[in-house]
Each structure stands twice: as C-alpha cells, then as structure tokens.
Amino acid sequence: MQYFSLTAEFILIILIASLMGKKLWRAPANPGGNKMMDPKKMAKQMIDFYKSTFDNSFSAMLMLQEQMQRMGSMFIEQSTAMPEEGKKALNEWIKAYKKGCEEFKKAADENYKRVESFFSEGEKSEKPKTA
C-alpha cells in the first residue's frame, strides 16, 4: 500500500508541475566527457528538486483545501439544523487549520534555506583548482 501511495503522489506532483509549465529536474550538462558529477552539486540539485516538489504539492493541497472549505461553508450557511455556536466553532477550526498550514510552510521554507546555505557555504569554501 505504501508503494502505491508514493507512486500516486509522484504522478500527481509530475502532473501538477507539467500543468504549471515548470521543469522540476534538468539533466546536468557534462562537457568534460565521462567525469563524475560533483557530489555537492548533485546533492544541491536533489534538494532543489525536493523543494520544488514540496512547493507544488503544498500549493495543490491548499487549492483543494480552499475549494472544499468554500463548499463546506456554503453548506453550513444554508443548513438550518446547525446552531450558531456550531458554525462559530467550525469557523474557528478552519482558522486554526489555516494558521497551522502557514506555520508548517514557513518552517519548511526556513529549513530548505538552511540546507541551501549549507551547500552554498561549502561551494564558497572550496578553493578553485588550478591546472
């Protein structure tokens, strides 16, 4: 079941990225022939790939959540069976959920920046090779 879930998520990410017109991964140019790619550069490209897939997945999730929230709000407003206290509680729950999503996105972005700075510091500290 786990394999199916990961495959479905990956297909969804690729579909969203293609619809948005973004390239998630570029094959690195290899002008020097059969030389191995620098591990730090490869790791940085992988982190960039993960960040772009996270951003695309997160934005797709937010779009779906906002659409469902609008539909739910219309249903709740038109419902005569739900008391006002229940409607207020649901609205507070929605606000808490949105705040949690914003905080999660902020934390993820900060951590991606930390990882990117780690790799950029590593590139700056390396001395250029002279031939």
SSE order and pairing:
Blueprint: H1 2-20, H2 39-78, H3 84-125
Would you mind describing this structure in some detail?
The chain is an all-alpha fold and 131 residues long. The protein has a domain at 38-125. It is built from three helices and no strands. The protein has helices at residues 2-20, 39-78, 84-125. α1 (2-20) packs across α2 and α2 runs antiparallel to α3. The longest helix has 42 residues, at 84-125. The radius of gyration is 22 Å and the shape is elongated. It starts with a helix and ends in a 6-residue tail after the last helix. Mean pLDDT is 77; it is low at 1-5.
The main sheet comes to:
none
How big is the Rg?
22 Å
Question: What portion of residues belong to β-strands?
Answer: under 5%
Order of helices and strands: HHH
- In the predicted model, the low-confidence regions spanning at least 5 consecutive residues are 1-5
Number of strands: 0
Q: How would you describe the shape?
A: elongated
Rounded mean pLDDT score: 77
* Class of secondary structure makeup: mainly alpha
Helix content: over 70%
Q: What separation lies between the terminal Cα atoms?
A: 53 Å
